[in-house]
Automatic annotation (TrEMBL):
Organism: Marinobacter guineae
Family membership: Belongs to the acetokinase family.
Protein's recorded name: Acetate kinase
EC number: 2.7.2.1
Keyword Ribosomal protein: no
Cofactor entry: Mg(2+); Mn(2+)
Keywords assigned: ATP-binding, Cytoplasm, Kinase, Magnesium, Metal-binding, Nucleotide-binding, Transferase
Amino acid sequence: MEDTVLVVNCGSSSIKLALFDGKHRKLASALAERLNQNGAFARIDGDQQTIPLKPDASQDEALEALVTAFRDRKVMASVPAAIGHRVVHGGETFREAVLIDEGVVSAIEDCAGLAPLHNPVNLSGIRATLTLFPDVPQAAVFDTAFHQTLPKRAFLYALPESWYRNWGVRRYGFHGTSHAFMALEAARLLGKTQATTSVISAHLGNGCSITAIRDGISVDTSMGLTPLEGLVMGTRSGDVDPGLFDFLRGKGVGAEEVHRVLNQESGLLGLSGQSNDMRSLCELADHGHEPSQTAIDVFCFRLARYIGAMMASLRHLDALVFTGGIGENSARVRQETVSHLRLMGFKLSEELNKHHGEISDGRIESADSRFPVLVIPTNEELVIAREASRLAGAADPS
């Protein structure tokens, strides 16, 4: 058994794999897409050749093909020392990453009602690797676990208490692995310990969420029972008036259709009518496409409003942190968002923001900003690899 860690992230139509060495340096990564539909394909990053798959390959088939490709290319010589899995929803059962056994598999199944599009496919990846590597310790790392420190005032909805008691209706939060990494990295960049660091972490990509981290732990976050609540996202609406469902029912639009549109045809895509990709929208806006500019404006204003709301959960603020594909790469989004926060004392340096913080160890605020503003690349795979190594080492009787 070689001293490597395999990280598995199974989605509804994709699988991402990453392989790390014993010092948690990434050795390779791979991706399979369009699974369970025509045109399934896979590739190893940096390799121009695609990996042969059946046209409608399943997650299990794609995973086995990717592992075989790692071995054929001598990236993974034998079997890994540990395997880490991203699992979207752990409900209230899991407050931290755990080694996988039959009881954990059963508990993840029990949470499937809270994430029907995610947990079943996460489980398919777990079952596939348990078959491929039956003797390797495997860990489940939950998107929701970091947010299990939320106080009741932050996670309860103002609904009948029995809904929470009987059905688990509450705010859970997501992107926890990314926000946990932000807590650690921000502390390092600021020269503090994680336990004394308080930041607002904005994870911005096709999915977006924001978290108030006080003294290293999550105390408020924007996503709720599902990943639909909160910020404007690529295709998700974020917050809407619940009365919308009754209003649209009166127009002949059923609940299933509303749910589909809110998740798949709203957000940046719905507002612009063009794209859910922020880069494309910025280009369109620069060429005078007004709906694209409107989409950017709504996205940034909603984000700024949530940043202000997160302040209520903090005693002090060490930094505002931007991460994720948009957060790391869009100087325009960062500038427009922070322009709404001048009353709170946030100000950016135009030059540092333009260079994404690369010339200033992540810092992009101006000299007269009340608070530091950081750009930190997220690394959820690294967090999962570290957790899998930690748990596998703890389980090793030697």
